[in-house]
Structure formats: structure tokens, C-alpha cells
Amino acid sequence: MPPTIPAGFRAVAALVKPVLTATTRRHWSGEEHLPRDQGFIAVSNHVTYADPFTVAHYLYDQGFAPHFLAKASLFEIPVAGKFLASLDHVPVHRGSAQAREAVEAAVRLLERGDSIVVFPEGTLTRDPEMWPMLARTGAARMALAHDVPVVPIAQWGAHELLAPYSKRPRLFPRTDVTVQAGPPVDLDEFRGRPLDIEVLRAATDRIMATLTSMLEEIRGEKAPAKPWDMRRDGGGR
């Protein structure tokens, strides 16, 4: 069984969940793939600022208290920042000496059996059709270094609730939101090998290919042959 959901999470859920329930039609599936005997990294595609709410809603409904790796700037917001920290969400200081602290904090959560949620793209997708982009390697590094499973969670529909980059939700009519977990990504061939850029890139690409394939099934469409790369294709949108 996953760790008991702390009171702080239950209090937040009591406020947020009724809003999500009233404004969305939820299509949840794949919950049998969520490990209940150890911590795991949940990875998801990222289209809108509403994604953390819909993924958290899904995991909470399955009995998990989802912990997010989030931009450090969010923790600097008065009151809200302290609240995020009190729920054991993890601030990420990109490109600084403090980046290691985020990994150490996330590993402590995993070791006690919690789940952490990572959006490997690091930002909202810039792909014009909202397919997953080329991702950062942090989730793969953490999974391989600490031998924890990576569970892909593909989601679609939250962008109808809150358009990309918008801060004004469309609450009615209710939005169909699909969230589907898949089996842990098979990373066995990468385990025990030096964590050089080649290994991390290959493992990350496998994680994202799995997510993209799941999203193709949900959307009933085919993704581009090559994922959007901001260095190659630009910022997009």
C-alpha cells in the first residue's frame, strides 16, 4: 500500500476536487499499473498549466499523495510557497548548485514509498499540435541512479479546461479529461551502466516514446516522426 495521504493533502483535495469534479468528465484508466509496494516516478506530457491538477486528481483518486518537482520560483510566492513546501513538493533550481538538493529531496520521498510527478519536457510543449517534445534527462537519471520504476501517465483534454499559457479557465460546459497510466517503462538495459549522456538520452527517449504512443491511442492520431526540439525547431507557438 502507498503511504497514508497526509492531512494537508486531504485538506487541499477537499477544496480543489469538488471544482474539478464539477467542471470535468473524467476518463481514468491504467490504475493497476501504479506500484503500491514502492516509490515511483510518474512522468506525464505537459500541455497546459492545468495538467498538475488533473494528474494529481488522478493519483489522489488512486490513493496516492502526488509530490511535484516544480520551478523554484513558485516557492518564492508569499504564503503559497510555504504551503507547497509543507506538502513536500520539491523546488527545482535549474542551472544552479542547488539543483542537486532537488534530487536529494525527491529521492528521500521515493525511499519512503511516495510517488513524485515529473513533466520531463520541463515546460509546456511548444509542438504546434501539442505532442510531447524532446525531454530533459532528469527523470531517467533519477530512476537509473536509484533503481526506481518510471510510470508513464498520458493525459489529454485539460487544455480545453485551461488553454495553453492562459490563466482563465473555461469551466462550462464540462471538459472531457482522459488520464491513463501505463506499465512501468522497461529501462533494464540501461541499469548498471555509466550514466553518460548517451545512456540518459536513450532512456529518456524511450520514456517519451512510450508516453507519445499512449497519447496517440488516446487522441486517435499519429504523432510526428520526430519530437519537437526547441533547439532545432525554436520556441514555437
Automatic annotation (TrEMBL):
Tagged with keyword Transferase: yes
Superkingdom field: Bacteria
Molecular-function GO terms, alphabetical: acyltransferase activity
Name the record gives this protein: Lysophospholipid acyltransferase family protein
Native species: Demequina muriae
Domain Phospholipid/glycerol acyltransferase, first and last residues per copy: 40-158
Pfam family, one: Acyltransferase
Keywords assigned by UniProt, alphabetized: Acyltransferase, Transferase
